[in-house]
Amino acid sequence: MGNRDIEAARTYHATTKHSYTSVRTDGHFLDWENRPMPYKLYPEVSGLALPRDLSLARVPALEAIAAGDSPSGGGELTLEALTRILFCADGLTRRTRIGGQDYHFRAAPSAGALYPIEIYAAVAETGELEQGLYHFSPADLRLRGLRRGDWRGLSARAAAGRPSRRRARAVLVLSGTPIYFYYRWRNAGRERLPSL
Predict the structure, then answer these.
(1) Domain 29-186 class?
(2) pLDDT tens digits, one per residue of 23-77
(3) Rounded-to-integer distance, Cα 11 and Cα 146, Å
(4) Nearest 5°: phi and psi at 135?
(5) What is the pLDDT of residues 79-98, one digit of tens each?
(6) CA–CA separation, 74 vs 79, rounded Å?
């Protein structure tokens, strides 16, 4: 099966999606008292507040990518440009309170609004940011410095030796909960996955 095998993706989607009947007869339920935390926290790291007044493009993302537009304008990576990228990928767009529970909505959708993806940025030194590895915290729009130094090379080795990553101004690394734990914990009851 190749990456372009759209029929396989459609078949997988059709066989694992919920139906009116499955939602009402399936033995799974969500234990709302035992929900996982919606954000990964690094309480020992204070973090750098990111700019909140962003000028966001009105161009659709795929159109901008196809055109090769640079979110930073082509020069040095600024903190505002990095913030725009991070916010559009996983930023907190709004909050609402329903039945005494807080619900947070992010820029990228997630099944059941559980958001199992975390974003880390391996950043080259800029005028505004020290070279290092950072965690993006959408809850308070901060970058939390985890490691000093240049971590872009490690990312390049992990990505089949792509040397261009060593020269990138920033490399974004996305991590997620492994599928078994993701299904059993952060996304329990939201998807009907085959037994493991």
Answers:
(1) alpha beta
(2) 677 666 656 666 667 788 888 888 898 988 887 777 776 776 666 545 444 557 8
(3) 41
(4) -105, 135
(5) 888 998 899 889 998 888 88
(6) 14
Mean pLDDT for the chain overall:
75
Task: Please identify which residue in the block is written with the tokens 């809850």.
Answer: 139
| One-letter amino acid for residue 175 of the chain | S
What's the rounded Cα separation, in Å, for the pair 81 and 117?
21
Tokens of 99: 């039945």
Where in the chain does DSSP place strands (E)?
48-49, 92-98, 101-106, 117-123, 132-137, 142-148, 170-176
**Tokens 């299904």 found at:** 183
Please say whether the beta carbons of 107 and 153 come within 8 A. no
- C-alpha separations of 107 from 75, 95, 180 in Å: 26, 12, 25
**Per-domain boundaries in the chain:** 29-186
Q: How far apart are CA 132 and CA 46, in angstroms?
A: 15
> Both tokens of residue 65?
């990518």
Residue 98 is predicted with a pLDDT of 81
